[in-house]
Specification:
This is COBRA-like protein 10. This protein is an alpha+beta fold. It is built from three helices and nine strands.
């Protein structure tokens, strides 16, 4: 009788191990090469907006030559990203965004927009400038696009030079506003550093 119990125990152990193996073995989900990239995360605060949401993010800076001891004369290369998002219920036609620069900025490029006066780069914009959408001048609504973020938003990648704002101070514009007729913007707020 003992000889019969041993093979049964081995079969039971083998079945238990087989069951355990199938319980802990999970398949790997490999993304398809053709799947679209995930949409960018909405900026903080956008979920509270039922209109046009504007942001300006300072992305960083680099010390430029010549290196000067006079901090107010020292030049810094900077990168920033401005965003216009239509979080409202009406299409925004021919958007115009005013950025109130204040550190003697000289823009070298603005990908995703052009300067309203149509001037060439480099452009001195130390008192602020207005950007217009190029190539995306109109921003549709989330309702008519099923929330397709690239159709309801425009991003402006800004590169340029600014003066006199050394780290750790973060050089933000004085103002940020939509200048399209029929829109009234509250004062801009800093979020974090």
């Amino acid at each position: 009788m003992k000889a019969l119990k041993t093979p049964c125990i081995l079969i039971h152990v083998a079945l238990i191990l087989l069951c355990l193996r199938t319980q802990i073995c999970y398949g790997q989900d490999y993304p398809d090469a053709e799947s679209p990239p995930a949409p960018p995360a909405p900026p903080p605060g956008q979920d509270l907006c039922n209109g046009i949401f504007l942001t300006y993010n300072f992305m960083g800076r680099e010390l430029l030559y010549p290196h000067l001891k006079n901090a107010s004369a020292q030049a810094w290369a900077f990168k920033a990203m401005a965003t216009v998002v239509n979080a409202g219920s009406e299409e925004l036609k021919a958007w115009k965004l005013f950025v109130g620069f204040r550190h003697r900025e000289i823009l070298v490029s603005a990908t995703g927009a052009t300067i309203i006066d149509g001037g060439d780069f480099p452009a001195a914009v130390g008192n602020g400038t207005t950007f217009v959408g190029n190539p995306q001048a109109d921003l549709k609504t989330a309702i008519e696009t099923a929330g397709d973020y690239p159709q309801i938003s425009a991003q402006i990648e800004i590169k340029g030079t600014q003066f006199g704002v050394k780290p750790p101070t973060i050089p933000m514009p004085k103002s940020l506003k939509l200048v399209n007729d029929g829109y009234l913007c509250p004062a801009a707020k800093n979020d974090g550093t």
